[in-house]
């Protein structure tokens, strides 16, 4: 598609206008301020598990009760933390992100209610 046809397309202009708007920049900043630290936290937790499994097998094989080891608890903790992060994100998005994203979507789609 040529640049002249793109420039004349009102729908593309609307998308570009929204992308350049302060509201969109703020929404993107808010999203990144939540997602990047949460991702970093999860990756640190995951790599701690992997590193302990590799470099501290004595600690990870320590039995907590019966056949339950520290490694098993860490492994199950990975699943629990994944679900917890998902729950936290959904609640955060419902309150702090989705209403503003809906407003921007309404602007693009032309619904100004």
Description of the molecule:
- The structure is a single chain.
- The N terminus is likely disordered.
- The protein contains 5 helices and 2 strands, in the order ααααββα.
- By secondary structure, the chain is mainly alpha-helical.
- Strands 1-2 form a two-stranded antiparallel ribbon.
- It is elongated and about 60 Å long.
- Helices cover 84% and strands 4% of the residues.
- α3 packs antiparallel against α5.
- It starts with a helix and ends with a helix.
Q: What labels would you give this structure?
A:
transmembrane, 5 helices, DUF485 domain-containing protein, single chain, mainly alpha, 113 residues, elongated
Q: What is the structure about, briefly put?
A:
The protein has helices at 3-8, 10-20, 22-55, 57-60, 70-109; strands at 63-65, 68-69.
Over all CA atoms, what is the radius of gyration? 23 Å
Order of helices and strands: HHHHEEH
Tell me the strand order in the biggest sheet. 1-2
* Poorly predicted residue ranges: 1-6
Helix fraction by DSSP (H/I, runs of at least 4): over 70%
**Major sheet attributes:** 2 strands, antiparallel
Shape: elongated
- Number of DSSP helices? 5
Distance between the termini: 33 Å
- The oligomeric state of the chains shown is single chain
- Average pLDDT confidence is 86
Number of strands: 2
Which structural class matches the secondary elements?
mainly alpha
* Proportion of beta-strand residues: under 5%
InterPro entries: DUF485, MFS_trans_sf
Protein name: DUF485 domain-containing protein
Transmembrane segments: 34-56, 68-90
Pfam families: DUF485
């Amino acid at each position: 598609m040529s640049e002249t046809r793109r420039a004349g397309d009102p729908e593309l202009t609307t998308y570009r206008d929204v992308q350049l708007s302060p509201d969109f920049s703020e929404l993107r900043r808010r999203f990144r301020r939540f997602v990047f630290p949460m991702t970093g936290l999860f990756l640190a937790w995951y790599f701690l598990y992997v590193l302990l499994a590799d470099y501290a097998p004595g600690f990870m094989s320590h039995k907590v009760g019966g056949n339950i080891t520290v490694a098993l608890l860490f492994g199950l903790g990975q699943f629990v933390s994944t679900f917890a992060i998902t729950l936290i994100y959904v609640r955060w998005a419902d309150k702090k992100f989705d209403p503003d994203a809906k407003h921007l979507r309404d602007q693009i789609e032309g619904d100004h209610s």
